[in-house]
Amino acid sequence: MSRFKFAGDFGAIHQPEYRRMAKDERISPRAFRVHFAALGWANQIGHAEFGPGELAQVLGIGCGRQADKAADKAVTAAKTMGLVLPESGLRCLVLPYTLFQKGKGTVVCNHHRASIAQGVT
Ligand SMILES: [Zn+2]
């Protein structure tokens, strides 16, 4: 793996590691793992999109309405803690550009109908 040179106080994360930690059931509360999922799957505009029921599966909660409800509770807790932006939900977790930036990947969010052309959220 290559090493980077950063300006200011920026560092780097390895997204596959955060995807792994998002799934790690030893880590609690779940709100932390919501944050890890956001970091692990965020695209260039800081949006991490998930399919129906996908976030509940990532968090190891399972499938179905009850699982989605529990996952939604974890997202709400993460929002309350400021770990993801208020516009986050089960279908997309959003990070501010002050917290996460990336040089590669998509620059749109189908869920929020956002794109880099409309400005970075
Ligand atoms: Zn989004």
Brief characterization of the structure:
With 121 residues, the protein is mostly helical. The protein has helices spanning 15-22, 30-41, 54-58, 65-80; strands at residues 47-49, 92-94, 108-109, 114-115. The site of zinc ion has 8 residues, from strand 1 and strand 2.
Task: Describe what you observe in this structure.
This protein has 121 residues and is mainly alpha-helical. It has one domain (15-118). It contains 4 helices and 4 strands, in the order H-H-E-H-H-E-E-E. The protein has a two-stranded antiparallel ribbon with strand order 1-2. Strand 3 (108-109) and strand 4 (114-115) form a beta hairpin. The model has no long low-confidence stretch (mean pLDDT 92). Zinc ion binds at residues 47, 49, 92, 94, 109, 111-112, 114. The site of zinc ion (ZN) has 8 residues, from strand 1 and strand 2.
The profile of the biggest β sheet is: 2 strands, antiparallel
Secondary-structure-derived class: mainly alpha
List the strand order in the largest sheet. 1-2
Query: Could you tell me the strand content as a percent range?
Result: 5-15%
**Count of distinct strands:** 4
Shape: globular
Q: Quick check: average pLDDT?
A: 92
Share of helical residues: 25-40%
Q: What distance lies between the first and last C-alpha atoms, to the nearest angstrom?
A: 30 Å
Number of helices: 4
Low-confidence stretches: none
Count of folded domains: 1
- From the alpha carbons, calculate the radius of gyration and give it in angstroms: 14 Å
N to C succession of SSEs: HHEHHEEE
**Bound ions, cofactors and other small molecules, one mention each:** zinc ion
